[in-house]
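hey so i finally got around to running the thing on that chain from the lab meeting. sorry it took forever, my laptop kept dying and i had to restart like 3 times. anyway pasting the input first so we r on the same page abt which one it is
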Amino acid sequence: MRDDCHSVALGQTDWLSSETVYFGNGGVSQNLLDLLKNTEVPRVNREGLYNYLEFGYSVFGQTPVDGVRFLPHSSRLVQDHMGNLSEMRETDPFDNLRAYSLSESEIPELLRAKIQAWEQSLPSSAEIVLPLSAGYDSRFLLWALDSPERVRAFTFGQSDRQSDSVEVRVAKFLAAKKGVRWEHIPLKGFHQHLNSWYSIFGPSVHAHGMYQIEFYRRIRDILGPKKTVLSGIFGDLWSGNVEIPTISGPSELANLAYSHGLSSNVEEFRRPLPPLVERERFWEEERAKLQDPRYRIVALVRLKIILISYLLRVPERLGFETHAPFLDEELALAMLNLPTNRRAGRAWQTDFFKKEGLDIPSVILGSRQNSLNERELTRTPLPSLDVGLLERYVSRPYVEA
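ok and heres what got predicted. didnt touch it at all, straight out
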């Protein structure tokens, strides 16, 4: 694609960078491993590794691999006639939509209009795969769909007895309420997919979503490939489930990681610590906007989407198409701009579901235990870490522990 008469655009990202564009080592790709094919032993970028360990995934445009970066949101990667690459930033849609406001009643109608327009773009015989849980996001999507007869909903449980999980019992209730075909997908042995996970993400994020590979493999066994998955990715963050406290400096940017403890203790990183140049640059560029609590949520999504996009990338790798309505900037900003007291605890959505008869009766009980990963670690332990390699960067006792 020609950018102008002197340069060529090699890649472009949307307002959230929902599809990662990696570049370096003489190439550009959406798969980091493509840029390592001609490198026998990739060099480690200590700053990139330090940030990776603290966040649990690559951040600030930097990977743990020296010489390989990724494009930030709202940007183009441009190559000039000499072969030099540069990042060209475009206008941030947040700046244009920061005042975009809809009422509580208008937001569901906007979601429904967007989903039903998408439905109409599909062949009339196309089946829609809806991963349905006990949460609000998939329930919101279920409400908005116009053609329940072609929806296939699937749920996995997280407790020891998966069929007794609250996710399974609530999803079964919701599917019956809306007249949607539903099935429970039991999960086991998903650590066997570790190599498949690495082939998709390489060393850009931690090994986190092998259960999703198992989930969609089993769905593919039932339905076959080339179906479309309707994903509720990030709906919870826009709607009020998370609030990020004020950030006062670069050292507090890790508050945006939202890693649920799935990160490393950087106090164990070997001294001297690397200069955190990219973190400082990010802070200087974003510090004014980060004073806005709405933008802190946007920044969180932009940082973490390199990991959470596995909810889209995994089914795509297995032959599904994906559609993610909550990545739409109008819908996202409309939810972010609701009054603070109505966003708190997602009160506006709770009231909406009650009005629509989609609240969950108290008689539906289920286990809220989340032992899925613990159980799998016992059944199928992961390979040991390479102590000899990692002790160059992290204390040996910490790696061995």
